[in-house]
Amino acid sequence: MEDIKTPYNSVLSIAGSDSGGCAGIQADIKSISACGAYAATVITATTAQNTTGVSDIHAIPISHIEKQLESVLSDIQFRAIKIGMLHSCEVIKIVQQKLGEYELKNIVLDPVMVTTSGHKLITDDAIECLKNFLPHVSLITPNIPEAELLIDEEINGDNMEAMAKKIAEHYKTSVLLKGGHIIDNNEMTDVFYEYPTGKTITITNPRIATNNTHGTGCSLSSSIATFLSLGEPMEIAIKKGCSYVNKAIAAGQYKTLGQGSGPINHFGL
């Protein structure tokens, strides 16, 4: 009897490496695996990083990033792409070029530009290059400080829906505006604006009092990409991704790792 083989639902993560394992490529691999897909990677930078912070960043040469992209894209059929921090214009341009050559769909971009404390992680030139890239992706997942950089306006709990729409219409892409920076009683509120249908959805989850939230943005964008790879429509993929991360935060609230901000518990163990 002939064996019947089925392809993996594959997701490609293009991002930096976190030596502490909480965020970046490591968080992406864990969340993609936990949500039911196969994870492949292109590493744009390595970091000397732990739960207390980043002490060094090493940029991978552009030629090697290009070879990584060409190697995996020429061999593996990806049903979704997750993109993390792209630290320079050169990196942004080669990623955009290669993804365009292969006409890939379901591209989820987490525009990592600002630290939790409000400091910029990439140069102003790179931010402008990133803005030019946004119309070529399917979904962006900015937090409040990142969204404010994109739209150059202040965002609060009262105008999240209007600002999500404004960003989406400006950059011609769907937007999941993450509201974790807004303290609103015991709830976390995110706003999804779907472009070009114009549909707006508010997603709420319980706010969990824990310091173990390192890598939540990476895990959310990669889990959404995973659900897209499994054939879910974007609205459902986003709802499932938000629910997954909330449960992973809850599962990790009583765990400890290192002396700073620990990770979420991706596998709920």
Question: Keywords, please?
Answer:
alpha/beta
Strand order of the largest sheet: 3-2-1-4-5-6-7-8-9
Helix share, percent: 25-40%
Q: What is the average per-residue confidence, as pLDDT, rounded to a whole number?
A: 93
Unreliable stretches: none
DSSP summary, beta strand count? 9
- C-alpha termini separation: 39 Å
Radius of gyration: 18 Å
Count of DSSP helices? 8
**Shape category:** globular
Question: How large is the share of residues in beta strands?
Answer: 15-25%
Largest sheet: 9 strands, mixed
How is this structure best summarized?
With about 270 residues, the protein is α/β, with parallel strands linked by helices. The chain contains eight helices and nine strands.
Report on this model:
The protein is an alpha/beta fold and 269 residues long. Helix content is 37%, strand content 22%. It is built from 8 helices and 9 strands. The protein has a 9-stranded mixed β-sheet. The longest helix has 19 residues, at 234-252.
